[in-house]
Design brief:
Elements lengths: L1 H13 L3 H12 L19 H16 L25 E2 L28 H8 L4 H6 L9 H4 L19 E2 L2 E2 L1 H7 L3 H17 L15 H13 L8 E5 L5 E5 L8 E6 L10 E9 L2 E6 L7 E4 L10 E7 L9 E9 L9 E6 L5 E6 L5 E7 L2 E7 L5 E2 L4 E6 L2 H4 E10 L22
Parallel strand pairs: 11-18
Antiparallel strand pairs: 1-4, 2-3, 4-5, 6-7, 6-10, 7-8, 8-9, 11-14, 12-13, 12-15, 15-17, 16-18
């Protein structure tokens, strides 16, 4: 251990490149099987000493831990009678990005209105064949059910846990579900399917700006890619605390609301202190006392699971990092309404409202601006009634419209109203010529 620290200090002081570091450490340890993975970024500033220092520290940290093979996936509880030792509360301390692009134009904002029961990430689970309607009809939606019971309830898709698919496979431009059923998915390839196959190819959400995992089937590759989202300013870390209770449950508390669609990274509980990600999933929301995720973690294939229950089973997991949905990608609907008169001239100060067909809730959208427009973001996908208060002196053939907000066109939904000015004909006074001979004359 002391030798490694001396080598680390020497490397940092003399700014030795990471390619030399790997060779020096391998020789020092004297192993023939050591494998060191160094993540490099083509856009990284080669003169950034702090970035090099971070890379060196990562290499030393990995060598100090056990040799990492591809991590096994998190499984659900085998028995609630297992009682791992109680641990003290742990506070997540997110790493500070090495560099922040000077041209970063994204100000992070969460999709706070994304509905836990109706959103694009739930849709991506359904697309794999998960029977959400059957799950609801059982009356067990957002209630924890043991892994051994799920298949018998008829919820699960035909996709199993296996590493035969990368998640990128397509057929006719859509995710190749038949291929997934044959080859199976693991945790990382499921997340790959969602972000880089379903979202662009089915939902119409462009995710091409996001860094992709070097290995789409490896959880730690996804962890590295998502950290780059933070570095670029697209995402942020959410801090949290947790402890493992005497009964084996994880008592997990996030310091702020976690956006649906966030990347949840976990580490292998059998390797205390490990900074490698051994399981990756997609945050599904908080309900009924659980923090839910969409994931593949065992023979069930794509499904719901709860962070609180992931310390059970043969592959116990612990929370590592929470990385939010990227702000440069719209994950909820944006609505733009335009109001004009019959000549196409924008109309300002026209009041608008939106009624959710499902909940019946009415949202006041305000009034149109000088350009005759109102733009509203963070709306839940689904059916609505859009209504304008027709201005005095105008008429509209359809002052209310039944609309559907979708994820197509990067969730950009446009609708419009056209108002026609009411023309009032002036009455004309009688002229002298219109007086007939029958009109009595007075002297």
């Amino acid at each position: 251990m002391k030798i490694l620290l001396i080598i680390k200090d020497f490397i940092i002081t003399h700014k030795i490149v990471t390619s030399v570091v790997a060779s020096v450490l391998a020789l020092t340890i004297g192993t023939t099987s050591a494998v060191i993975v160094i993540n490099t970024n083509k856009n990284e500033n080669k003169d950034d000493t702090s970035s090099k220092t971070s890379s060196v520290s990562s290499v030393v940290s990995e060598v100090e831990s056990e040799e990492e093979s591809e991590p096994e996936e998190s499984s659900e509880p085998v028995s609630s009678e297992q009682k791992p030792a109680t641990s003290k509360p742990v506070t997540s301390k997110p790493a500070v990005p090495a560099t922040t692009p000077s041209n970063n134009s994204y100000s992070y904002s969460t999709n706070t209105d994304m509905d836990i029961d109706n959103n694009v990430f739930m849709d991506s689970l359904i697309y794999t064949g998960y029977n959400i309607n059957k799950h609801r009809s059982d009356g067990l939606m957002w209630q924890y059910v043991l892994a051994s019971q799920k298949r018998g309830k008829g919820w699960l898709s035909k996709i199993s846990y296996a590493g035969g698919s990368t998640g990128y496979e397509t057929a006719n431009g859509k995710p190749n579900i038949a291929h997934f059923e044959r080859g199976g998915l693991v945790c990382a390839s499921y997340v790959t399917y969602v972000y880089f196959n379903y979202l662009p190819n089915v939902a119409g959400i462009d995710t091409s700006s996001l860094t992709r995992p070097a290995d789409p089937k490896l959880a730690n590759s996804w962890y590295i890619a998502a950290q780059d989202w933070v570095k670029k300013g697209y995402s942020k870390y959410i801090d949290f605390t947790y402890n493992v209770t005497g009964s084996g449950f994880i008592n997990f508390k996030a310091k702020e609301s976690i956006p649906i669609g966030s990347i949840i990274c976990m580490s292998d509980a059998r390797r205390p202190g490990s900074t490698a990600c051994s399981h990756v999933s997609i945050y599904a929301g908080y309900k009924n006392g659980y923090n839910w995720v969409y994931h593949v973690g065992n023979e069930n294939g794509p499904e719901f699971c709860a962070i609180e229950r992931m310390h059970f089973g043969p592959d116990p997991q612990l929370p590592l990092k929470v990385i939010t949905t990227p702000a440069n990608i719209r994950m909820s609907a944006l609505l733009e309404i335009s109001v004009t008169d019959d000549s196409g001239k924008p109309m300002s100060n026209v009041k608008l409202s939106l009624k959710n067909t499902k909940s019946g809730k009415i949202k006041d959208l305000g009034s149109t601006n000088a350009s005759g427009k109102v733009t509203v973001s963070n709306l839940i996908y689904g059916s609505y009634t859009l209504t304008q208060t027709t201005p005095t002196g105008y008429t509209c053939s359809a002052p209310s419209q039944n609309i559907t907000l979708t994820a197509k066109n990067n969730s950009y939904n446009k609708y419009s109203f056209k108002n026609t000015k009411i023309v009032v004909e002036e009455s004309k006074p009688e002229s002298e010529s219109e007086i007939t001979s029958e009109t009595p004359l007075t002297e």
